[in-house]
Description:
The chain is of the alpha/beta class. The protein has two domains: about 10-35 and about 115-204, Rossmann fold, CATH 3.40.50; about 40-105. It has ten helices and seven strands.
Amino acid sequence: xxxxxxxxPLIIGLTGSIGMGKSTVAEMFADEGVPVFDADAxxxxxxxxxxxxVEEIESLFPGTTGPxxxxxxxxxxxxxxxxxxxxxxxxxxxxxxxxxxxxxxSANSDAPLILFDIPLLFEKTGxxxxxxxxxxxxxxxxxxxxxxxxxxxxxEKFEKIKxxxxxxxxxxxxxxxxxxxxxxxxxxxxxxxxxxxxxxxxLA
Length: 204
Ligand SMILES: CC(C)(COP(=O)(O)OP(=O)(O)OC[C@H]1O[C@@H](n2cnc3c(N)ncnc32)[C@H](O)[C@@H]1O)[C@@H](O)C(=O)NCCC(=O)NCCS
Ligand SMILES: Nc1ncnc2c1ncn2[C@@H]1O[C@H](COP(=O)(O)OP(=O)(O)OP(=O)(O)O)[C@@H](O)[C@H]1O
């Protein structure tokens, strides 16, 4: 077997605070051919209709699920202002997401680069096993404008979520690369392309 066949993919951990542009940037990495594991999408599967965690969530937080699985508005109202409740929820969700991430890694073991989109990478020690951390960042004004424009979002909910997340300035300090989304989309895409090229070159 050649050395190349033995090599595991270089794992990029993509993170950033609410509304900074993670999903948009993750799609740009996918456009460059990088397989993307989306932790939020994994949570949606686990909580969706017939999802593996729906029953357990109902027993921990009665009244927060229905025929469509978890009602995220109701579950959010139960946990987002209550650290102890949120921690109980995380204790069942994070191990299940971790397993899905491992399965994804096995399924893409031939790729040179893969990307884990992990919103809470710094907050929940998801940095273990990640080779290169990319932080997606924008100005506070852009972040606020984007988030408050979303349906079902209030300033109160936004402030609660921000208080649960590591400040952007701290994330930027800990990043291996920063992608700026307070610039036109084409410039952000260029930054993503540069990052992919640099990482591929580091493998050669
Ligand atoms: C609390 C829930 C039901 C709220 O759902 P809702 O659709 O209203 O919001 P959404 O998921 O889009 O989250 C909004 C923002 O809150 C942040 N957030 C979500 N969970 C957490 C958390 N445990 N700690 C800090 N921030 C969080 C997200 O990163 C995002 O920036 C949902 O976020 C959830 O089930 N969270 C627990 C699982 C988790 O930790 N997910 C985050 C990454 S995998
Ligand atoms: N240069 C840019 N790069 C990325 N996104 C941009 C840019 N300019 C404007 N936007 C817009 O900003 C928004 C970012 O939202 P996105 O869902 O990607 O954020 P997110 O960080 O994934 O949010 P959350 O943490 O809530 O999941 C999108 O509507 C996107 O079109």
